């Protein structure tokens, strides 16, 4: 398999999932701003969307969109429990969380804050109104829980911890939500999560 990624972006969640499963893959670094790969190649020739993650599967098919990629990886070793069994209620709950993180957290909060196309007023509104509403909801759900799903650590947790890791750069003080801060610290203590973040942070610094 081959993972096309940009350090410390949403593709980090897929790296975490691969490490959780001890699943080998070749990693290709992409600059999502210039759409150039580390070897100078045009990323649009690989993925016409120009976004990450993109995964060249075992079957040789290019799979895109984070929630789909994460579920594919999880299903490589279903016995490890990164995704509940297909057809179960728990699997639909996983998809519920993946969709929520993708749309309500990743895109609504962080895409707005980090995109140069959005006006300053929109970014302020997101920091002061949107993000608190989302984190209040997540805090209430995670209060007394170790993971998003009662089945244990899943790819939804890999995705959520990836987004929470952006809070500092986005000007969001996660300390306002002790439950979320404790959750992030707990997730970072997992060997696969810590390894993925450490490696990608070093790569990100080299890109700067």
From TrEMBL:
InterPro entries: Glutathione-S-Trfase_C-like, Glutathione-S-Trfase_C_sf, Glutathione_S-Trfase, Glutathione_S-Trfase_N, GST_C, Thioredoxin-like_sf. It holds the Pfam family GST_C. CDD domains: GST_C_Beta, GST_N_Beta. One of its GO terms (molecular function) is transferase activity. PROSITE patterns: GST_CTER, GST_NTER. Residues 87-208 form the GST C-terminal domain. It comes from Hyalangium minutum. Keywords: Transferase. This is Glutathione S-transferase. Residues 1-81 form the GST N-terminal domain.
